Amino acid sequence: MPEAPLFVVQLHDARRLHYDVRLEVDGVLKSWAVPRGPSLDPTVKRLAVPTDDHSIEYAEYEGVIADSKYGSGAVIVWDAGVYTNLTLDKQRRRIDPAEAIDRGHLKVRLRGVKLTGAWAFTRTDQDWLLVKVRDDDADPSLDLTITEPRSILSGLTIEEMAATRA
């Protein structure tokens, strides 16, 4: 049985602080910049702006990207784990994640250190929305972006990572 595909959420302090949500699809990390981070509240729709695909190796990257490069700034691995594709077509057959992205709707179950449960990515006219699915892991009263600011790898906050460059 093949291993489950990975996901990673990197907190990135570039031009603006945002969360890069990345899913392993066809050997690369499909990526969306989510300015306010994932929400556990199913009534909250978070903007998710598609960004360039990244290599799988980038899933473990933490550090400070030099000022001269695209996306410069501090990066921490805020969360990571594996996911299960839950996307179904009208006949209730599983749709490949790449095809689901092409169609504009992908539903996944995350099993991470911080994030668990199902989320849906849905394309709008120009961008995407990331929404928590109503399930046992939904919790409108909890904001993990505030209560859990540290990297799951280094234990550093984004500010502490930025200070390592000084």
Structural notes for this entry:
This protein is mostly beta strands. The chain has one domain (6-163). Helices cover 10% and strands 43% of the residues. It contains three helices and nine strands. It has helices at 97-103, 144-147, 158-163; strands at 6-13, 17-25, 28-34, 45-55, 63-65, 73-85, 105-112, 116-123, 128-132. The protein has an eight-stranded antiparallel β-barrel. A hairpin with a 7-residue loop joins strand 5 (63-65) and strand 6. The mean pLDDT is 94.
Structural class: mainly beta
What is the number of independent domains?
1
**Sheet having the most strands:** 8 strands, antiparallel, barrel
Q: Which consecutive residue ranges, at least 5 long each, have pLDDT under 50?
A: none
β-strand percent reads 35-45%
Number of helices: 3
Q: How would you summarize what this structure contains?
A:
The chain has 166 residues and is mostly beta strands.
Tags for this model:
43% strand, mainly beta, DNA ligase D-like protein (Predicted 3'-phosphoesterase), 166 residues, single chain, ligase
Task: Please describe the topology of this protein.
Blueprint: E1 6-13, E2 17-25, E3 28-34, E4 45-55, E5 63-65, E6 73-85, H1 97-103, E7 105-112, E8 116-123, E9 128-132, H2 144-147, H3 158-163
Antiparallel strand pairs: 1-2, 1-6, 2-3, 3-4, 4-9, 5-6, 6-7, 7-8, 8-9
